[in-house]
Predict the structure.
Amino acid sequence: MTTLTNWISPGIMQSLGWALLHFLWQGTALAALAAAAMAVFRKPSARYLIGIIVVGFMLVGPIATFFFYSQVHANSTEFVKSSPLAAVLPLAIGQAAAASGDDFTISVEFACTCE
């Protein structure tokens, strides 16, 4: 039985995952901007045009994000380096240690087993 991982490379799957995750905030931001613009314009045709434009941006947003992350993965040999968690986690742990006054070092390593 073939699985999805046999059809699509891990880099493409990770790019797709990031695009879908980023669409959560992108779609929310676009909806908020559309609501603000529709509150200003009372004419139905203007509100309709704003809605159509925002839906178009909602279609283009995840596609552009997918291609952005697929380019990042094409230039990187390790997928983990592009992960926001890999960049933020050591900083957050270090800030928490500095705030508590403790003086210690934490080493965080991420491994990717891609077949």
User: Anything to note?
Assistant: The mean pLDDT is 77. Residues 10-75 form one domain.
